[in-house]
Amino acid sequence: MKRTFPIAGTYVINGIALLCLLALTIFAAYVKLGPFNTVIPLLIALAKGALIALFFMHLRYSKPLMWVFASAGVFWLGILLVLALGDYLTRGWR
Amino acid sequence: MSSATTTAPSHLEHQFDDAQQQRDAATTGMWLFLATEVLFFGGMFLGYTAYRIYYPRAFAEASRHTLIAFGGTNTAVLVISSTVMAFAVRAARENRQRIVATLLWITASLGMVFLVIKGCEYAKEISEHLLPGRSFHIEASDPRHAEMFFYLYWLMTGIHALHVTIGVVLITIFAFRAWITDAFRNHDTPVDLLGLYWHFVDIVWVFLFPLIYLVNRHG
Questions:
Q1: Considering only alpha carbons, which residue of chain B is nearest residue A84?
Q2: Shortest Cα distance from A39 to chain B (angstroms)?
């Protein structure tokens, strides 16, 4: 059977990784990178969110049913963002 | 507590076959609640995104007026509190009640530190006329939409701070219960769910931080 709980060191490494990503995102914000100044912070935020969900919230060690419920929130958020922005972003098209 | 006896109190409610099923049902319910929270915050994130796409310059200028030293410190404080919370949940599963209580107190204290820093930040922003309303004033090319940025800033961080406050209150209550009573002995699910809530509040902040403080720091 799969383990349902990580070893203690996992939490420490996860916490340190999150702090490193925080330092990285602040550093990257002060460098001129053009469009990447918008993309990089969002990708780092997604990575941080995933680390928290997978290890602190134990999703990595959870049953598929929990994955379904956790994904559902993100999926509905995706519908909200994609459909609404599909309107806002295309209003200039003639 | 239907089948509680004097010797060994059972936490198994009668509608469940076994403890594992009860735990899975509770955890599933918590994830469902968090999905509704994602959508609750999602509406505000959508509003932010739509306005930022329409008025990128105003948002970039307004974002430079936010106080990154406060925001950055608070991000670190929440990450550390989440790490401590993860250890509290672990201790609960191992039935170490005193350690659970101690770690929960540390988590709640870090949550308080977050709120105090946020409060200082709010006070400084009010003194700099960055609270939308009659006294709002900003040196920007498009003050009206810079004000919209700050309207979204106060709304989103305010509702996030409300979540942190609720978390601090709950964590403190749980800490006292773990210290004084045997409420969580062989019954760590409530601590587990509290942990899920706290980590979720951390995730919301992880997304708020770059959208508020990092829009235009370069150049």
A1: B46
A2: 11
pLDDT tens, residue by residue, A21-31? 999 999 999 99
pLDDT of the residue at B46: 97
Q: Domain count of chain A? A: 2
Q: Chain A residues with CB-CB distance to B under 8 A?
A: 5, 8, 11-12, 14-15, 18-19, 22, 25-26, 29-33, 37, 41-42, 44-45, 48-49, 52-53, 55-57, 62-63, 65-66, 69-70, 72-74, 76-77, 80-81, 84-85, 88-89
**Yes or no, beta carbons of A70 and B195 under 8 Å apart:** no
Distance, CA of A47 to CA of A35 (rounded, Å): 19
Residue of chain B minimizing CA distance to A25: B210
A5/A25 same-domain check: yes
Q: Give, as one character, the DSSP assignment of residue A59.
A: G
Cβ-based neighbour number of residue A71 at 10 Å: 14
- Residue in chain A closest to B69 (alpha carbons) equals A26
Q: Is residue A74 located within the same domain as residue A54?
A: no
Q: Within 10 A of B172 (CB to CB), how many other CB atoms are there?
A: 17
- Can you give the pLDDT at residue B219? 64
pTM: 0.94
Structure tokens at B173: 């209550």
A45 and A70 in a single domain? The answer is no
Are A77 and A41 in the same domain?
no
Residues across chain A? 94
Same domain, A34 and A51: yes
| Type of residue found at B119 | G
**pLDDT, average across residues B67-87:** 98
Q: Indicate the residue of B50, B213, B219 with minimum beta-carbon distance to A32.
A: B219
CA distance B89 to A92: 51
Helices (H), B94-188: 97-127, 143-180
Q: Are residues A76 and A33 in the same domain?
A: no
